[in-house]
Structures are given as C-alpha cells and as structure tokens.
Amino acid sequence: MNHHLVLVPGFGGFDALGTLRYYEGVTRVLEETPLVLHYFPNLPTASVRTRAEQMLSFLDERWRRKEIRSGDEIHLVGHSTGGLDLRQLLWRYRELEESKDLRRADSVLDVLSHIRSVQFLSTPQRGTNLVRRLNQPLVRALLIRPLLRAFFESTRALRERGTSVSGRLLRRVLLRGKRLESDNWIDALLDTMEGCYSREGAHARALARASYFELLRWLLHMASDSSALSDLSPVHLGDAPPSPAHSDDPESERRFLVEHGIRYASIVTVARPKSERRFDLFNQLYALTAESPDARLGPPRAVQKLLDPRTTQMLSLSDNDGLVNTVSQVWPDAASCYLVDADHADVIGHYQAETAGDTHGALKRYDLLNSASGFDAEAFREMWMRIASFAQGKSYAGSARASRRSSAAPG
C-alpha cells in the first residue's frame, strides 16, 4: 500500500517556472518518509471551479494509469487558493455521488474512496481583504488585464533570446548588479527571464527553450482568465459563481469529510512587517490586507501554535501573512487549526534566499516576501514533517510529542 501526497499550488500556481519551483524543498524534506509525492500543475488564475475540475481529471488519470492502485491512500495538501480548490473538489465529488449520471460518477468516485486526509495551508477559506481592496472592476479592466496581456505579448514578440537579454538589461537597471535582500522577488523574475535562452550544449538549449514556452503559457493563462480573483473576494461579486469562500455552512462540509473517513487539518500563518522598511513590498501588502477588513473574513480566534503546542495566540481581523487574513484561514473550526509564524511564501519553501554557492541545478529558493516572521529551515522541516505524519495517520499533537522525544534523545 502506498500513501500518495498530492500538493496543490495556489493562485498563479505552477509546478516549476524557470528557476522557481512552487513547492521548493519539500521533496528533500520528505524523502525520508514513505510518501509518494505528486505535484499538481494547476491552472494559474482560472476559477476555483475550473481548477477543481482539472484536479478531478488529474486524480482520475493517475487512477486509470495505475499510478494509484486499489488499497493505496490519497492525501491532499492545498496551499492558499489551492485549499479552496480542494474544498471545491470535494463539493464536486458530493455532486457526483448524488448524480443520476452513474457512468460519469463511477469513473471518478473510486478516487474519492481512497482519499484519507486533506490539509489546508494558508488558505483564504473566506477570502482575503487584499483581493477585496484590489479587485475593483476598473482596476481589473484598466490595469490587471492590460498589464498581463502586455507581459504576454512582449514576451512572445521578444522570443527566447530577446526575453533573456531583457532580463539581463533589467537586472543592471533595477539591481545595479547587486542582489538586494528586499527585492528577492525581482531576482526570481529576472532569473526566469534570463533562463529562457542558452548558448550552451543542445540539452541546455532545449531546457531553456522549454522554460521560455512554459513562461509564455503561464502568462497567457494569467492574461486570459483571472476568474479566481472573484473567488477570493470575501464578498460574492455580481453574477460570478460562488466559491467555497462564500459558503457559510462549514458543518455540512465537515460532515461529508467525516462520513467518508477523511481527516482534516489547517495550518494558518501570521507574520509581521519589518519596522525599518516602510516601503518594502511585504509591508505594503501587509498594510493593504490589514486595513479595514470585512467582518465576513471571520471572528477573532485563539489558535494553538504548531511549533509551541502549549501556547495559543488570539488573532484579530487585521492579522495576516502578507496576502491572507489569518482569521480567514481558520476552518472549519479553531480546534483543527495550528498557527505558524510565517509569511504566505515561507511555508512553501521560499523563506530564505539561496546564495550562488547553495544552488542546486537551475531551480533556486527565493525569499519572495521577505517578512520578519523568523521562519527558517528548521521550522520548515518541522512543519512539513508534521504534515507528512498527519497524512500517515498521526495527529498533529501526537507528531509534536514524537518530535520532542526525538530532539531530546541522546546522540
């Protein structure tokens, strides 16, 4: 029997893009576990419904190809919007169970019977105030869509070599030849652009060409469909289909999980800005997410800390991880949630930038948000080992006790 851990990326998600892997370092941490890892290549900004339908097909295909077999267990982890995708996926399974189209239902419900756990990581279960503030019709029509379309068209026009040269030129202008700690997300963008062309051997040229077309595909998806923005608003917008973020009945979802023997847990994240960097990207995002939050994001909650289980922290509406209000991540109840001091990107492996000497292959780790969370390699490893332990049937509390015994053991 195999335990399959399926990792679902969030908004803008991908498996790997240029030098940036979405879930960076997870494979290295979990290689000592018996889990079989699957990285779902999500549709970046499509609606939660569309993304969940894609995931339904992805899991069904793994089953049909016998990558997942009878007797195996499936465990799902969704980061950010990927957690909403998981809730939508479970809604879809419930619809198929109740459907009279038994041929379609039978083809995918075998997968449902093998799902044994679902874990949410920094998920905007009731949306995020950041999207409420930015997702205005004029902003989307006059700024977001034209900007994304311009990025796509310019990348297509520049082709591989032009995109790479543009990345080098922009680095000289923006970073003046230096890697700035607070601008690590710019490094990620420029590294990806530069990696679209290579003068090395045939294999390196082929990889660079593949990176270029992957970047082009990602930009086209982003420019063509930004429906996920509506799904992330705490207020249901217009005639857009409601997403799980707009559901006010977590009990019915919880019952479905219990009835099917699916265990569940949520890791919620909170960070703080750097006081000396007023105009830092993270500071600006944090302030936008914290300012005048909608009460629908959730009530103040006291949540147990994951890495310090004897401590709880009271969360207010304004607390957030730079992108998502922390109270919105508490679902379906505070008892099944665990708090981590980390920003939104820390928990997927982008907590500290790798220096040139630390790189492994073309893929690198970036400190994308650069908050003052204090999250580090030790916290990252501990958190993902807890996620792995939960997938293998242990409780978070039980894995915490085992971890403390291990760290106290001599030698």
Automatic annotation (TrEMBL):
Domain of life: Bacteria
Family matches, as SUPFAM superfamilies: alpha/beta-Hydrolases
Protein name, as recorded: DUF676 domain-containing protein
